[in-house]
Write a structure and sequence with these properties.
- The protein is α/β, with parallel strands linked by helices.
- Helices cover about 40% and strands about 15% of the residues.
- It contains eight helices and nine strands.
- The protein has a six-stranded parallel beta sheet with strand order 3-5-6-7-8-9.
- Strand 8, helix 6 and strand 9 form a beta-alpha-beta unit.
- The longest helix has 15 residues.
- The relative contact order is 0.17.
């Protein structure tokens, strides 16, 4: 059994600090296919304090149209965004479904890494969930030092229905590997992503080593659960 879903990538060409060209995009997709990924979420950065939702969606959709004709039918692409949540997201009556995983009410969300989620970030989550009926998928949990020190807060977030995402490449880092394995064993990581920006920065190859690590540790159930949760998020 292997992970089949990459829920966080920067593969769309020329839209953020990820793939710069169409060739770069196709090289990253090829690597993900070799890692047996069957579904790729395209989640370029959307910085809500820098750009309107309409302008971002227009740029993203244009990049998607450029990419689509060059991708075979052996992998499925799912359009979305990595939304950096600030107060500016809520100042206009925007249709936030446009930056959720396509066709769903799940949104890949990023907050200030100093967040405790009992602060402004917690207020933003309330607005997303109660005012907009959006379910956050919290991106790369390992970057939030407070959450890594207080896994009980991760548990609280999950109890509310929030999905926790971790980067495959983070399991290759000595300082994070055991901490993330402990979280995964405790059921505190829901889905995985490459967060691939290039072949060098967060390489898709990390999925191969993560599959190997989880299998070697007898943790194939984590792979199964992650695939199941990814299907639920994407509505497939």
């Amino acid at each position: 059994m292997k992970l089949e879903f990459d829920m966080h990538t920067h593969i769309l060409p020329g839209i953020d600090d990820g793939a710069a060209t169409l060739e770069d995009s196709l090289n990253l997709i090829s690597k993900l296919k070799k890692a047996d990924i069957k579904h790729i979420a395209l989640t370029p950065h959307y910085y809500t304090h820098k750009e309107s939702l309409e302008d971002f969606v227009s740029r993203r959709d244009e990049a998607f149209e450029l990419l689509k004709p060059h991708v075979g039918n052996d992998v499925t692409l799912h359009l979305g965004a990595e939304v950096f949540v600030t107060k500016y997201l809520f100042l206009n009556d925007w249709d936030l479904s446009k930056v959720c995983y396509e066709g769903t009410n799940f949104m890949l969300t990023e907050f200030s890494y100093s967040s405790t989620f009992r602060d402004e970030a917690g207020d933003f989550i309330d607005k997303l969930m109660y005012d907009h009926k959006v379910i956050p998928v919290l991106t790369h949990v390992e970057r939030y030092s407070y959450l890594m020190k207080h896994p009980e807060v991760i548990d609280e977030l999950m109890y509310r229905g929030i999905i926790i995402q971790s980067n495959a490449c983070s399991f290759e880092k000595f300082s994070l590997k055991n901490k993330l394995l402990k979280l995964a064993k405790s059921g505190l990581i829901g889905v995985f992503g490459s967060d691939a920006h290039s072949l060098e920065r967060n390489s898709p190859d990390a999925f191969n080593s993560l599959n190997e690590l989880l299998s070697k540790k007898g943790l194939s159930s984590i792979i199964e659960d992650a695939n199941s949760t990814s299907r639920r998020i994407l509505g497939i």
